[in-house]
Amino acid sequence: MKALVAGVSMLALAACGGSETSGQNQKTEAKRIALETIVIDTHIDVPYRLDRKWEDVSYSTHGGDFDYNRAVEGGLNAPFMSIYTPAAHDGTPKAKEHALEMIAIVNRMVSEAPEKYIVAKTVADVEQAFKDGKIALPLGMENGSPVSGDLNNLDYFYELGIRYITLAHSKANHISDSSYDVNRPNDGLSDFGKDAVNRMNELGIMVDISHVSDKAFWDVMEITKTPVIASHSSARKFTPGFERNMNDEMIKALTTNGSVIMINYGSAFITEEANQYGPKRTEAYTKYLSENGMTASSDLQAEFNKKYAEDNPYPFATLDDVLDHIDHVVEIAGIDYVGIGSDYDGVGDSLPEGLKDVSTYPNLVEGLLKRGYTEENIKKILSGNLLRVWRTVEAYAAAN
Fold first, then answer.
1. How far is residue 64's CA from residue 344's CA, in Å, rounded to a whole number?
2. CATH of the domain at 129
3. pLDDT score of 23
4. Cα 340 to Cα 135, 142, 254, 293, distances in angstroms
5. Could you say which of 172, 227, 283, 315 has the lowest number of CB atoms within 10 Å?
6. Is 173 left (phi over 0), alpha (psi -120 to 50) or beta?
7. What is the pLDDT of residue 57?
């Protein structure tokens, strides 16, 4: 729905309204909107980053994509902290232990800078933090393996603040099959996974279908009594065959119960060229080994990758490419079903030009203004749609 680009339907333009600002005013307006609006990003991997190397993110940091000062500059008020557990821990006691370690890191962030951060467990917490000038830190569990086959653990993690759970990650687990795993032992959701979705509904935990297989997505949509989220996925239209993104049929299905897709910024999620960069490099490496009679090693691969990058620079996506994904969701589903799930601190150095860290949300807003989105609809993308889902999930839990 590029309102200012030729070839786009008038129907899509009408969905988002005409441009309210133009020229130089758009940059100023974009900054104002970002700073005056609750900005929610449903997937930021700060805990895992800090687990590997602690930094005081209550001030400016040299590394990473997130710190307090950059978040304030960008207007980011409610970044969901990813409580990520690697698939290597699936089925082991370490899964639950690791999740608790990640939660402890967020609690440390808050305890060391209580004037800047607060753990948010409800929509009301997020709204109060915004009024108080603090950054709310809701918690989202990436990979359901810490549930460890015990529904009581859902209650346990809910009490600790977990407000969404990504059912699987890079491998199938005891809850769900993964889009990244060729093995599909559950044929979608497992029987336990179906029970887990029901219990998450009852507790008020949002069900996150990022990472799961297509069959698991449809199983969730059949079972869930509340809207779901894709916390950090993008549109498969732009990356054909990449199951990790959502196809058009799935995106349209979100409208049946008010669910929402949060767009991932990673370049490999955004353009086909970036998506195929890794596979093409691997193919070239395999050919290199064969032609030179070499045996694969980590050192040799690192050396090859460095030379490959010099000859074939990584094709970073752009801000416009990210906007294309938002436009596409709006065109086929509507303005009420899209938000932001950047994956900052989770996709390495593959972030798009113009969106390199959490200071850049005004750039996204400016891009939306240029494409004709109204302020009202921009605010839906920045937080309104996710807050609507979260409120609905809270209300269902309260009634059950």
1. 8
2. 3.20.20.140
3. 66
4. 17, 16, 16, 47
5. 283
6. beta
7. 98
Compute CA distances 85 → 47, 51, 100, 229, whole Å: 11, 12, 10, 19
Q: What secondary structure does DSSP assign to 86-129, as a single string?
A: -GGGTTSHHHHHHHHHHHHHHHHHHHH-TTTEEE--SHHHHHHH
**Amino acid (one-letter) located at 114:** P
Contacts of 282 by beta carbon, 8 Å cutoff, 6+ apart? none
Q: Which tokens is 176 given?
A: 């769900």
Residue 15 lies in a domain: yes
Q: Quick one: tokens of 298?
A: 């980590």
Residue 275 CB contacts under 8 Å (≥ 6 apart), including other chains: 239, 242, 268, 269
What distance in Å separates the CA atoms of residue 326 and residue 337, rounded to the nearest whole number? 10
Give per-10-residue mean pLDDT for the chain (400 aa): 33 42 83 98 98 96 96 98 98 98 98 98 98 98 98 98 98 98 98 98 98 98 98 98 98 98 98 98 97 96 96 98 98 98 97 98 98 98 98 98
Residues in the chain: 400
- The answer to whether position 377 is within a domain reads yes
Q: How many domains are there within the chain? A: 1
* Contact between 274 and 234 (Cβ < 8 Å): no
Q: What does each C-alpha distance from 250 to 109, 156, 164, 242, 243 come to in angstroms?
A: 37, 31, 19, 14, 11
Q: Is residue 293 part of a domain?
A: no
Does a structural domain hold residue 253? yes
pLDDT at residue 22 in the model: 63
295, exposed or middle or buried, with CB in 10 Å at 0-12, 13-18, 19+?
exposed
Q: Does residue 378 contact residue 8 with C-beta atoms inside 8 Å?
A: no
Strand partners, 139: 81, 162
